[in-house]
Amino acid sequence: MLLVISELEAYTIASLEKTLNEVLQYTKTDLYILVVTETKPLTISSLTDQLEHIYNVAFKLNDDIKEGKTITVILNDENYDASVAAELWSSMMYSSKVDLTLIPKPYHAHISSDSMKQLSPSYSSSLKPKHEKYRLCNPNAHFKSIPVVAVGGTFDHLHDGHKILLTVSAFLTSKTLIVGVTGSELLRNKKYAEYMQTYDQRVNNVRQFIRCVRPSLSPSIYEINDVCGPTTQIEQIDALVVSLESVKGGDFVNSKRRELGWKELDVYTIGVVGSDDETSFTNKLSSTDYRRVKYLKNKSDV
């Protein structure tokens, strides 16, 4: 199902909680969320606020409500692939605050009128304070503003934190998105490594996610077996997207690029989903948690 909400609602925690609770109890399928913005162009600062609000609310939802359904925020793109939309969802719910004429046709051209439902009016219209801008080197950067963007990670059991990293990277990229996926050399000391998805599985998950978020963008994927990966192999990279937890990695990459005589990368640093603070990252969402659950389940079965 596609859920369409307004930009105001994407910033309003109480409204998001009410809406997601209602929609997830109504639908039995995975949920895709489109935020219709009246502010153009949408900036990277606004996008990160929206993503962090939505995914943090989704992260804290009761598992009995989610019932294993995945939640994915997709980019608002007038050139979205209509065939991908038809493959991913067959129904739509939309907020009473959404102007239907602002929803690009590719998202809903295949949906019959009886498969569209308006949500009950939100009971909250007050905005919560926006997230602090985490070291965004250009908070006014907008959709497709940077030629070559790089992002890296293990991307094991693709979770909401990974989704934010990849979505922001796809949002910024005007030409080439380079994704580094961690290989075996850097995974030897990972906890519960026996429950980690294979490299091919993780690469496929990244490709499928980018295809949902922005179908027109086909990522170039590289295996990472050192700290820098493709950022010190490809000179023509303009920006790097990292999580707040990995910000020192961005500094290290730029020090190595300086040694090579290459330009430094603009580093966009994104907050950590579920984290209680910016230093210990208590309660943060991580792939290790997914693997630990599998380990404990397997141990109890034995």
Give the topology.
Blueprint: E1 2-6, H1 7-10, H2 13-26, E2 31-36, H3 44-60, H4 63-66, E3 71-74, H5 82-88, E4 92-94, E5 116-118, E6 146-153, H6 160-172, E7 173-182, H7 199-213, E8 220-224, E9 239-243, H8 247-259, E10 266-270, H9 287-301
Parallel strand pairs: 1-2, 1-4, 2-3, 4-5, 6-7, 6-9, 7-8, 9-10
Helix pairs in contact: 2-3, 3-6, 6-7
Structure description:
This protein is an alpha/beta fold. It has two domains: 2-118, Rossmann fold, CATH 3.40.50; 135-270, HUPs (Rossmann fold), CATH 3.40.50.620. It has nine helices and ten strands. Strands 3-2-1-4-5 form a five-stranded parallel beta sheet. Strand 6 (146-153), helix 6 (160-172) and strand 7 form a beta-alpha-beta unit. Helix 3 packs antiparallel against helix 6 (160-172) and helix 6 (160-172) packs across helix 7 (199-213). The chain is globular. Residues 151-292 form the Cytidyltransferase-like domain.
Largest sheet: number of strands, sense, barrel closure: 5 strands, parallel
Report the span from N to C terminus.
38 Å
Strand content: 15-25%
Multimeric state: single chain
Mean pLDDT, all residues: 87
Could you name the CATH class of the largest domain?
Answer: Alpha Beta
Number of strands: 10
Secondary-structure element pattern, one letter each: EHHEHHEHEEEHEHEEHEH
Structural domain tally: 2
Cross-sheet strand order for the largest sheet = 3-2-1-4-5
Structural class estimated from helices and strands? alpha/beta
Could you name the CATH homologous superfamily of the largest domain? Answer: HUPs
The helix fraction, in percent, is 25-40%
Sequence stretches where pLDDT stays below 50 over 5 or more residues? 275-285, 287-297
What is the CATH-assigned architecture of the largest domain? 3-Layer(aba) Sandwich
- What is the overall silhouette? globular
CATH topology term of the largest domain: Rossmann fold
Count of helical regions:
9
* Alpha-carbon Rg, integer: 19 Å
